[in-house]
Amino acid sequence: MVAAAKAGLHRVDLETQFPRVHEIPFTSETKRMTTLHATGDGSVAYAKGAAEIILDSSTRLLTEDGAQPLDGAAREEILAQARQMASAALRVLGIATKPGASIENAEHAMTFLGLVGMIDPPRAEAKAAVQACEQAGIKAVMITGDHPLTAQAVARELGLLKTGRSVTGAELEAMSDGDFEREVEGIEVYARVSPAHKLRVVTALQKHGHVVAMTGDGVNDAPALKKADVGIAMGITGTDVSKEAAAMTLTDDNFASIVAAVEEGRGIFGNIKKYLMYLLSSNIGEIGLMAGATLLGLPLPLTAVQILYVNLATDGLPALALAVDPPEKDLMRRKPRDPRTGIFTRPVVTLMTVGGLWSAIANLGLFAWALNSGRSLSEAMTMTFVSLVLIQFFKAYNYRSDRQSVLNRPFANRWLNRAIGWELLLLILIIYVPFLHDAFGTFYLTLEDWLIVIVIALTVSPVLELAKWMVRRGWFGKMI
Length: 480
Fold this sequence. Notes:
alpha/beta; seven-stranded mixed beta sheet; three-stranded parallel beta sheet; 20 helices; elongated
């Protein structure tokens, strides 16, 4: 329509003068569309579609001297021109007509009119999204009905086509399943293919153990969308059938949104891991403290109310803050994790256990020392209670990453900072407001007591940093 308007031909005028009476709609299999229009001299058919398809339906060529027989030399010249246009990343359409046509013979013995080239440039963010996929260990493959040269030109522009192969639907049809499965990992562009070929691509990649996400918008895409591990339908151009078959729908039909969803998913998984490491490590430390004191014949280091406070208040808000922790900077530079691997890998369990055991040992040692130093049981319990709370706070910052140092953007999570600040305020009130002493069993702490408690609590950070150092070097298995 844009090309026609540039030539002074406008759709509204043409539809009034030559109304459409029949239509043979476009399909991905026929790769063409034909319409029949009523004129004063009878009906006329016009067809547009893939250049080679329209050319195969044509027996004559319109020239300055009128319609001439379409010989082999003319066909080759037209196809060469189409290839040249396609290699410039143009989507090429062939145009043909047939006077006196009926719906039955409209697509036979047509007169070839010419070629139209349309530029459909990739979105500005698409190239960056493809690069992000590559860094994240995700291989993007182009599957299109466009001319192979058009597909290759666009793929090179996006950085998709490098050392791999490009195949057409006809070449794909000629391959046996065994041959295709051997070559599928090296193919980066599929051109002139039909939706049915998508299912074959998905199946072959899955046989190699890959997790496959497939996009689609047509009715015929539904089998591939259903077969893929993640079927992705187009929200704007997609059919209802494709949306129902898919696992997710892109509301903006933008490839970059898929990459953003991957990053969001990785961030959520990482935050679940942080949340669980922190909570379970805290519980290990509390159980170890109480059990250790009992086994050593010491008095209980915490009152029931203090234990409840640590679990409900101190553990609660920091844990919730970790659930919304900002994603780590290198999140999209990590390779995909094995979907069969859960959260509790050996490195995660190691960090969780080290933090919990050190908390138990440090607090138990502090409690025993405080009793032997001549301090009252109430003061010793209060020092242990404060030390336990502070250790939990330090661990919350340490568990913001299972591989990076605690000094790497330590205060990037503003919700964690607010949670810790609020809890510290409550802790000071519990220690220094007299009427809370009876309820929590606490005691006034001196400056010396605070210095001792803070130093003891701080020791958990270098211990966890040493554990992370060992994890990074693979001492406890592969990181995910």
